[in-house]
Design goal:
The protein has helices at about 10-15, 25-35, 85-90, 95-100, 115-135, 200-205, 220-230, 285-295, 300-315, 315-320, 330-340, 345-360, 365-380, 390-405, 410-420; strands spanning about 20-25, 45-50, 140-145, 145-155, 160-165, 170-175, 175-180, 190, 195, 210-215, 235-240, 245-250, 255-260, 425-430, 435-440, 445-450, 455, 460, 485-495, 500-510, 525-530. By secondary structure, the protein is an alpha/beta fold.
């Protein structure tokens, strides 16, 4: 599940800008544009997009994705732009729906759709916003095929350097700049023969032959990678009883995939729950905000107590089943995962999928799952305020519970894994914590070592995602200067008289309006609403 597409622009940003630049025209840039054109003050808005297709966004672009790759966000979770996703789909002609691979009777607000379909939706809505903004008196210039090469903060404005497709350079100044660059994948992810640092672009991994394939990561990205390679060597078909099957192509006997992660668990199927969220009772935003001020030295333990109380109240049977009352931060994840770890991952997946499908039909909510999902964003408020010791405890022991509950996947994704496993083409492997992955320019694929076991894969795909970057890692030279952006810091401990020491922990140090903290003589009108180095504290990275 994903609930991060809304962009809440600070009031000052909405009303005071004259020349505004949005870097990126994906979902974040689109929602930013929607907020800006609502301003009664005429604005000069320039949207820079690196690709020729403004509005699609890299995660949804057909040049990057296979049509089998599913978005990890149900239609109800996509905030409406001009139309909701369901309204947009229902307004398509029958021929358009057929091209999109959607049956009209199957359109619904709880359904998941291919990434490229969302790209078509976002692009259509983007250009609708552009037309509406121009009609409302704004000057909007969409510069497709323009890559921003540098962002230079001045005293009163911000200079953007860009390169047009074909190599021609240019520069323009703006009063405010919104960085909505989002994902930043290298052009060539095959960093050594047969070793792919990312499952995107899908066209690259679809070149993998019918060989032993290793996939690091079992999230939706890992599933999409597996399915993309699998469809190059066979097809998925439903039989007469509605069960999805995988039919290998002739001459692909050597094709087999091993998905691997530390725990060797598959994600659970998306579960039904009321939306918008019902209010929490114990672990509320107000309570967590109060604890941030009143209990800074034991903030994690206080939040964990709220977590336990909320689940006991929501689902006492589940709380008793895992012994939540006796749980500590150090063992709560063990209790949460214990039953799944003891089961065969595919047996568990089949059982969980059956339950999720039945609950969707009857609109039944598993209350403990729903409680954890709702607490995700509330607990995230406290994470930046943890001291160094508690941040380590949280990351090592507690975070995994939220990540697992949050990162459920479409039912169709689980069906595809089960079909591949039943066809003898897929297994899941637990790596534990002590493992090593080696690849080189001399040999195709990778060698994975865990304990005393060594496994060789002719092809290998790392689907664990982008890692957090620091300010010094940004692809804009001027922002890497020591006097520009600062790395985020975490409190390490009390040094006396209410003063605390800090250490750099990576990421960009931003204020509550998503503006990087800069030197006093530089403008603070740069907004980092979506860049590769930012992530939700409770997300997978």
């Amino acid at each position: 599940m994903l609930h991060t597409l809304n962009v809440h622009l600070p009031f000052s940003l909405k009303v005071s800008m004259t020349r505004v630049a949005i870097i990126g025209s994906g979902p974040t840039g689109i929602y930013t544009l929607r907020g800006l054109i609502a301003s009664t003050q005429p604005l000069s808005i320039t949207v820079f997009e690196e690709t020729p297709d403004a509005g699609k966004g890299t995660p949804y672009h057909p040049a990057v994705n296979d049509r089998t790759m599913l978005a990890n966000i149900a239609s109800i979770e996509v905030p409406p732009i001009d139309q909701s996703l369901v309204e947009w789909l229902r307004s398509r002609t029958s021929d358009e729906l057929q091209a999109l691979g959607v049956e009209r009777d199957a359109i619904g607000d709880r359904e998941f759709y291919p990434r490229v379909l969302l790209g078509d939706y976002f692009a259509d809505q983007f250009w609708t916003l552009v037309k509406r903004g121009i009609a409302g008196g704004h000057a909007i210039d969409v510069k497709a095929s323009h890559k921003i090469s540098d962002i230079n903060l001045g005293n009163a404005d911000i200079a953007l350097k860009f390169t047009r497709r074909g190599g021609e350079d240019g520069e323009a100044n703006f009063d405010h700049v919104v960085m909505a660059t989002g994902h930043d994948w290298p052009e060539d992810t095959e960093v050594s023969p047969g070793y792919f640092s990312s499952p995107w672009p899908a066209s690259a991994i679809k070149r993998i032959g019918p060989v032993e394939v290793g996939v690091l990561g079992t999230s939706l990205s890992g599933i999409d990678a597996v399915v993309s390679v699998a469809t190059a060597h066979g097809m998925f078909l439903r039989d007469q009883d509605g069960t999805l099957r995988y039919q290998p192509a002739t001459g692909t006997d050597g094709f087999h995939v091993t998905m691997m992660s530390r725990k060797g668990l598959l994600p659970e199927a998306d579960f039904y729950c009321p939306m918008p969220y019902e209010p929490l009772v114990v672990c509320t935003e107000d309570t967590v905000k109060r604890l941030i001020l009143e209990k800074p030295d034991r903030l994690l333990d206080e939040v964990f107590d709220l977590f336990k109380q909320e689940i006991v109240l929501a689902d006492p049977d589940y709380a008793a089943k895992i012994g939540l009352g006796l749980a500590t931060i150090e063992d709560v994840a063990d209790r949460y995962f214990r039953e799944r770890e003891q089961a065969d991952p595919f047996v568990w997946a089949a059982r969980n999928l059956s339950e999720a499908k039945a609950n969707k039909t009857t609109r039944t909510t598993v209350q403990w799952r729903y409680a954890i999902l709702r607490m995700h964003e509330v607990v995230a408020l406290a994470v930046p305020h943890f001291n160094e010791s508690d941040l380590k405890r949280f990351q090592k022991h507690f975070k995994a519970v939220f990540v697992d509950d949050y990162a459920t996947v479409p039912h169709q994704s689980v069906e595809r894994l089960l079909a591949l496993h039943n066809a003898g083409k897929l297994q899941v492997l637990a790596l534990s914590d002590d493992y090593d992955i080696q690849h080189s320019m001399d040999t195709s694929g990778a060698v994975v070592t865990r304990e005393s076991e060594t496994m060789r894969f002719a092809a290998f795909i790392d689907t664990t995602g982008q890692h957090a970057l620091s300010a010094s890692d940004l692809p804009f030279p001027s922002l890497r200067r020591p006097d520009a952006l600062k790395d985020a810091k975490t409190r390490t401990g009390d040094v006396g008289r209410g003063l605390f020491s800090t250490r750099r922990t990576g990421g960009i140090d931003i204020d509550d309006d998503f503006r990087p903290r800069v030197e006093p003589n530089l403008t603070n009108h740069l907004y980092c609403v979506s860049v590769p180095c930012t992530s939700c504290p409770l997300s997978k990275g």
